[in-house]
Amino acid sequence: MSFAEGGSIEMMIVMREGAGEAEIEQILERLAEAGATGHVSTGDVVTVIGVIGDREVIAGLPLEAYAGVDKVLPILKPYKLVSREFKRRDSVIQVGDTRIGGGHVGLIAGPCSVESREQLLSSARYVKAAGATMLRGGAFKPRTSPYAFQGLGVDALKILSEARDETGLPIVTELMDPRHLEDVREFADVIQIGARNMQNFQLLSAVGTVDRPILLKRGLAATIDELLMAAEYVAKGGNQDIILCERGIRTFETATRNTLDIGAVPVLKQRCHLPVVVDPSHATGRVDLIEPLSLAAIAAGADGLLIETHPSPETALCDGGQSLNPGDFEKTAARIKDMIEWTGRRLG
Amino acid sequence: MSFAEGGSIEMMIVMREGAGEAEIEQILERLAEAGATGHVSTGDVVTVIGVIGDREVIAGLPLEAYAGVDKVLPILKPYKLVSREFKRRDSVIQVGDTRIGGGHVGLIAGPCSVESREQLLSSARYVKAAGATMLRGGAFKPRTSPYAFQGLGVDALKILSEARDETGLPIVTELMDPRHLEDVREFADVIQIGARNMQNFQLLSAVGTVDRPILLKRGLAATIDELLMAAEYVAKGGNQDIILCERGIRTFETATRNTLDIGAVPVLKQRCHLPVVVDPSHATGRVDLIEPLSLAAIAAGADGLLIETHPSPETALCDGGQSLNPGDFEKTAARIKDMIEWTGRRLG
Amino acid sequence: MSFAEGGSIEMMIVMREGAGEAEIEQILERLAEAGATGHVSTGDVVTVIGVIGDREVIAGLPLEAYAGVDKVLPILKPYKLVSREFKRRDSVIQVGDTRIGGGHVGLIAGPCSVESREQLLSSARYVKAAGATMLRGGAFKPRTSPYAFQGLGVDALKILSEARDETGLPIVTELMDPRHLEDVREFADVIQIGARNMQNFQLLSAVGTVDRPILLKRGLAATIDELLMAAEYVAKGGNQDIILCERGIRTFETATRNTLDIGAVPVLKQRCHLPVVVDPSHATGRVDLIEPLSLAAIAAGADGLLIETHPSPETALCDGGQSLNPGDFEKTAARIKDMIEWTGRRLG
Amino acid sequence: MSFAEGGSIEMMIVMREGAGEAEIEQILERLAEAGATGHVSTGDVVTVIGVIGDREVIAGLPLEAYAGVDKVLPILKPYKLVSREFKRRDSVIQVGDTRIGGGHVGLIAGPCSVESREQLLSSARYVKAAGATMLRGGAFKPRTSPYAFQGLGVDALKILSEARDETGLPIVTELMDPRHLEDVREFADVIQIGARNMQNFQLLSAVGTVDRPILLKRGLAATIDELLMAAEYVAKGGNQDIILCERGIRTFETATRNTLDIGAVPVLKQRCHLPVVVDPSHATGRVDLIEPLSLAAIAAGADGLLIETHPSPETALCDGGQSLNPGDFEKTAARIKDMIEWTGRRLG
Fold first, then answer.
1. Which of B79, C250, B283, B59 is nearest to A253 (CA)?
2. Category of D67 on φ-ψ map: left (φ > 0), alpha (ψ -120 to 50) or beta
3. Residue to substitute from B73, B218, B249, B262, interface A, most A β-carbons within 10 A
4. B-chain residues near D28 (CB < 8 A)
């Protein structure tokens, strides 16, 4: 009954109808050269080859290039260190005095970008008062237009640091360029990798060697497995303190800026052991959807939220249209805390 | 300060850079012929024409066909009867002894298809016991493959009717063909229009004249506004008892069968007065995601859920892989009822 | 070396890591009940089961519903009659005096909808003069808005018929409702099934028994395999004269109405034996893209084109913005004929 | 008849139905503060405000954040230097002895990555013999998996340089990290920015100051306008020698790796003056689609092609499944040259 012993089937090669013995033989030889073995099932219609061997070696073979091959179906997941199989228990990540993952829910809030000392300190105070567990704020800003505000850079990092000193809130800020790594590492508690850099592999490798947790945002067109592969880049460098962030994917729907993939939350939590947070601000680009989608995210099992809020959205230099004002943030945060309690978990 | 009086700007016509006076004049004449007026803004770079007149007339003009036109931007929504502006208060739809909308949350459950009298009656009993407010079950089944089970047809309708008699649960079943309308109307309490028929305009018109509420599912690639236009087809026929259903859209992500657009729930509720339900079974195709996404949907404000469940999913003739078994349905229903209470609304 | 004899592997079942013997045994029993056999490969990490048996029976089993199953990978294509394996040579479809497929390239042109006798006869004359091999024109129109022009119905069919009598051009027109089948069959030479009805399975089945070729348009969100499954519905009824039409799919890009999937042309021609035409008018919604995309389609191997043209696009009741005027149609048709010659094939 | 004088309407603000005078007044004040003016059209249903003023200032205002605003519609394009309005004539880019744009069609070919001196020199010789005008080859490779081959780095650059010395073909190679800019600039004739880095704004800014043409690939989920904005980042730095590359976008279709957006070619050429090339290898991931889609691209007006080819695809360290072997490349190149001639343009 068993067709293959002594190893896992890593991949199935489905031959085209009409593929001949010579074509099959050529593939078996290539597999043998690579130290793998192919187990052939010859059928009335098509032939299927199950491949056993070292996962990384097999994945690197250009099997689609061979004559007679119809398709190649991978059986095993391409990531390891971040997988749930590698580590069964939820990772809990400690950031300053607060935690995220494994029953601890984080509420990360603050403005899109640091615009001034007053704006940021004011933000830090009211988000702290409303229950936020970390402060976000951009020092270096990725902007679609080269004519838009690009951030205050190192000056912003210093202001964020001052806000942490005053409020005790750990700082989450984005790194866009490996040349800024030392500066960001010095001032930030959590280093964010933005959606547009999710497959900036040089940047991922760079933060894999750093002693700071990484908040890794899903790319606009990245699959769940590609997000996990990006996390694997970081983990492979030694840094396994990674928080994943679902922030909306790009679809045909234009009523919202992006489409929040709420199903990604439970899928990610099945496939990996890392905490998963949701950013309803970027997912929708609409301030009036932040509360319903925040509640939905917590209900679906998210380990935290990343919310944009601004002391005065009408004057914001970026993302004003998706930023809660202080009063609305306070109300929304209260509902979120209530929902966290409903799920039997705790804030921070 | 005012550039147009005596009417609403219905549409903006943006001319190409370099468009000349003759081209603008030609458009103004066409507008005038149609009883509309164009208000011209001549700028350094482009000219913009604001159009005032009857919405339906203007929408029918092929303005993109004119020389010199760059793009046409509609200002007003293309639907009326279903819009929130037409009716400010939430529609509450009465189905038998139960309600949906305006604080009443529906729990519609049952198997993908009616397979036998025993299977359906058994389903009706346990979903009723667990708290369902309506029973779903397919008599006519849309199947991607012509070789798959196509439903029992009228026999299934009779079985559904028997289940209603026994349990009191109203029946929700799909209509696929206008030729079956009389049969379905006779036995069903709510007539479902499936995702693949959301733009089957003949079918929409047909159910617009029937004295049964319509459950209208969003098409896989339909925008929120297209769903509302489809509802407008039904409403225009006189039938304004319409329940909208978000059931996942098609995206690049393959980890789930479709991507549940959770943001569509609050957006729909802003734009229209109709109740909005969510179908987590079809949205994901995965039984293990039904509970988290059901809770998320209620948290985001959905007026109900449509859940597939089967007395024995392993023997189901369709959708077995996304159907809850009786025990799991009971547990999930309990959590859902708890969440409904948390939101301050009531079941049924 | 062989892991399965006496049949084709139809499907691979990949078990979750940690799935136990009892779970595997349960699946093997279900397969045996269905007359199929499962061949087990037990590996270090995951177990894989290759399934051999009747394709349709196996496809109907809800294997995802079983405990311990991670995913189910189909090996064989789900369609048969339309597949290239079923018939190696290109199908050539005769329509009146013209042909399409297998070296014969069709040029189907005409207005979006029949608006009047004059408009249609005028269209028929100039498209004939410019080289069109068939005349298109809508009698029943699918319109997103219930307030838009819905077509002249049977009157339009009679006008189309008159145009055929005068010019000799076969008529292509859309069927939207099975209740109109007899009328449309009587007057049309080719019956079009529109994109929104590609999965209207009742309609597909209805035209499967008719003695007219079917022009089947790809749905906005339909995969290539779903299009082929829809064609299989028609073929299963006995009607194998099917012309497939790529007309753009829905993506995130908004610069064009839809995105022409040019790669679908060669992929369809590999997978099936049916002629494949392209509709650049609906694919882009922009008159200025019709010529470049028509040339691209023929260059990529398409068996024909479906082009909207109107005697006076500025007065068209639908799709004016994407309709070529007579002069531009003539120029574009000349370039198309030149390109057909370049590819070594012939018009009609 | 004119509703706004003394400037272009840059943006339309559509108010929600029911928005009051106070809300409108607040927006007018904010516009005035920013040196812009708002022209109000008060209608029966909605109020619309046309905004006149400096484009960059207006684009930076968070107008969606204001109470009563329904939506904000930009009228003007957000890019300038790359726009067709800025420069009417096609840009022709000189690279070594060859040109691209304005009637000169480029054929850029070579392996995915430089694997060895022998592999690359052999590639250079046969692509030159077959008619290629530039040689491509990766020194630094973006790989989804951290376990895959990452490229030979600077050693590869030296090998590429040697190939140029021998064959005279200019070198196109990818830059992934601003820290490698000097090395890549030293050896490359054209610096490629890959799809995953299309919105790596630091990298874009870095290459904006370099004296090498840039080949900028469209991101998997980037709109045409976002691609043009990315090009604007480069142009703003002073480097206006930019070649755009359509290489497939991510859609729901899985039959091809990505979906080639052939319509993007004529749309880009309308909106900007830069040359546009197509990469059929990455667009489809299938060697058998390279020829039909190459011909389609040239027929649609593309200024060049980027094709992967390998001396021995079965041994390739990356992208073997989408690389043409030398014999097939020669045949395809001959067809491409024939098609270029058909369009009345010239190779190189």
1. C250
2. beta
3. B262
4. 1
Considering only the beta carbons, identify the residue of B143, B144, B197 that sits closest to C200.
Answer: B197
Per-residue confidence at D5, pLDDT binned at 50, 70, 90?
very low
Of B3, B45, B252, the CB nearest to D4: B3
Alpha carbons B180 and B159: distance in angstroms, whole number: 16
Instruction: Give the C-alpha separation, A324 to D9, whole Å.
Output: 29
Residue C9: which of A7, A41, A250 has the nearest Cβ?
A: A41
Task: Examine the pLDDT at C1 and tell me if it is beyond 50.
Answer: no
Rounded Cα distance between B81 and B228, Å, is: 10
Structure tokens at A76: 């095993």
Percentage of chain D beyond pLDDT 70 is: 97
How many residues in total does chain C contain?
348
> What pLDDT is recorded for position C240?
95
Rounded Cα distance between C282 and C266, Å, is 20
Shortest Cα distance, chain D CAs vs residue C179, angstroms: 33
Name which of B25-34, C229-238, D71-80 the model is least confident about. D71-80
pLDDT at C175 over 70: yes
Query: Both ends of chain A: CA-CA distance in Å?
Result: 52
- The CATH superfamily holding the domain D93-347 is Aldolase class I (3.20.20.70)
Do the Cβ atoms of A170 and A197 come closer than 8 Å? no
CA distance A138 to A141: 6
Query: Are C264 and D253 within 8 A, CB to CB?
Result: yes
Domain ranges (residues) in chain D: 9-74, 93-347
The tokens describing B65, both together, are 């066909």
Contact call for residues B282 and B253 (beta carbons, < 8 A): no
For C22, the 3-state DSSP assignment is: helix
What residues in C contact A1, CB-CB < 8 Å?
28, 38-40
Let me know how long chain B is: 348
| Residues of chain C positioned with their CB less than 8 A from the CB of B217 | none
Distances (CA, A) of C70 to A236, B241, D192: 26, 41, 40
Nearest CA in chain A to B254: A223
The 10 Å Cβ neighbour count of residue C194 is: 24
Task: Write out the E strands in C57-139.
Answer: 69-74, 93-95, 98-100, 104-110, 134-136
How many angstroms separate the CA of residue B327 from the nearest CA in chain C? 14
Interchain contact, D66 vs A314, CB within 8 Å: yes
Residues of C in contact with A252 (CB under 8 A): 250-252
pLDDT category at B7 given cuts 50, 70, 90 is low
Contacts of A288 in chain B (CB under 8 A): 266, 270
Task: Write the pLDDT tens digit of every residue in B241-262.
Answer: 999 999 999 999 999 999 999 9
Record the pTM. 0.93
Residue A249 and residue A282 in contact, taking contact as beta carbons nearer than 8 Å: no
Judged by CB atoms closer than 8 Å, whether chains meet at C225 and D261 is answered as no
Q: Cβ separation of C251 and D255 shorter than 8 Å?
A: no
Alpha helices in chain D (DSSP H): 21-33, 55-59, 117-130, 154-167, 181-187, 201-207, 224-236, 264-271, 280-284, 290-299, 326-342
Contact D46 B12 (CB under 8 A): no
Residue A57: the pLDDT is 82
The dihedral through the CA atoms of B92, B98, B100, B103 has a sign that is: positive
Chains meeting D at 3+ CB pairs closer than 8 A? A, B, C
Per-residue pLDDT tens for D265-310? 999 999 999 999 999 999 999 999 999 999 999 999 999 999 999 9
Domain B9-74 of CATH type 3.30.70.1140: yes
The mean pLDDT value for A38-59 works out to 81
Residue with tokens 């942490």: A164
